[in-house]
Amino acid sequence: MDVMSTIESQDFSNLRIDLHSHTKFSDGSLTPQELIERATNFQIDVLAITDHDTVSALDIANNYISEKKYALNLINGIEISTAWQGFEIHIVGLNIDRTHPALLSLIESQQVARESRAITMGEKLAKCGFDGIYEKAKELANGGSLTRAHFAKVLLQQGSISKMQAAFDKYIGKGKRAYVKPNWCSIKEAIDAIHQAGGTAVMAHPVRYDLSTKWLRRLVIQFKEEGGDGLEIVLPQMSNDQRQLMLNFCLEYDLHASMGSDFHHPNKWSDLGRNLRMPEKALPIWSLWPEKLRSEMLTR
């Protein structure tokens, strides 16, 4: 039996795999080093760091793993925000070349869009009676991708709201007084940049977009037509019906399956590796990855 056949016959189900997580370089609460420590403590075998529109955490995390000689296999990733039919759809890139010019060019344009949106959001919040929020949110982001979560954290810290979600419900959520429509790239632009960087393109958390099944199917079809590789069909908090629907979409449209906690901060509901198990009928996204990488996943 050749090496390829041996790898294909191996059982990846014994591995703890989490292909969606965030650090302080976007809207996560842990540094890359802290995230790696947590993943190691939780006995995660394969972890992808997928910060919003940035790859800044990846070198730090990779160097830390090497320094500590941890067995953790880190997958270089990113989560790109895109615009589709008035909705914000996130596309995760996995196993990317974090230095590829096409990817870096897209990241630069996305960061310009983020900055412009943040400035306008700060102006609108000032009209709501909250001065200086943009400056405080930018300071909180500390050079990472500036997100609405940073604005929510500032409002919470200064006592303007009682919980994070209230910021979205009252001010910065879609249709609210301080909401600013983002100028994100298209789904196709995100997929193309990920592919040019040698990665696989996965639609993140499809069940969270508040779409009817009919509209979700339209989204999946377009994603597939534009070259998308897979759907994130396993998350910590999903109903059995949601899991089955996502699996059905993968099978119907010949898409691979991914899974991830979408980890942002320690909590009991969506912590690293929680309730992540690939359905038997699904074709896992890592089957598209190079033989060498899959071999490392099994042997590290």
Task: Summarize the topology.
Layout: H1 3-9, E1 17-18, H2 32-41, E2 46-49, H3 56-68, E3 73-84, E4 87-94, H4 101-127, H5 133-141, H6 148-157, H7 164-172, E5 185-186, H8 187-196, E6 200-203, H9 213-225, E7 230-234, H10 240-252, E8 256-259, H11 291-299
Parallel strand pairs: 1-2, 2-3, 3-5, 6-7, 7-8
Antiparallel strand pairs: 3-4, 4-6
Helix pairs in contact: 2-3, 5-6, 6-7
Question: What distinguishing features does this structure have?
Answer:
TIM Barrel, 300 residues, globular, disordered N terminus, 43% helix
Provide a brief overview of the structure.
Helix content is 43%, strand content 14%.
Structure in words:
There is one protein chain. The chain has 300 residues and is an alpha/beta fold. The chain has a domain at 3-102 and 200-299: TIM Barrel. Helix content is 43%, strand content 14%. It has eleven helices and eight strands. It has helices at residues 3-9, 32-41, 56-68, 101-127, 133-141, 148-157, 164-172, 187-196, 213-225, 240-252, 291-299, and strands spanning 17-18, 46-49, 73-84, 87-94, 185-186, 200-203, 230-234, 256-259. Strands 1, 2, 3, 4, 5, 6, 7 and 8 form an eight-stranded mixed beta sheet that branches. Helix 5 (133-141) crosses helix 6 and helix 6 (148-157) packs across helix 7 (164-172). The two termini are 22 Å apart. The model is unreliable at 1-9 (pLDDT under 50).
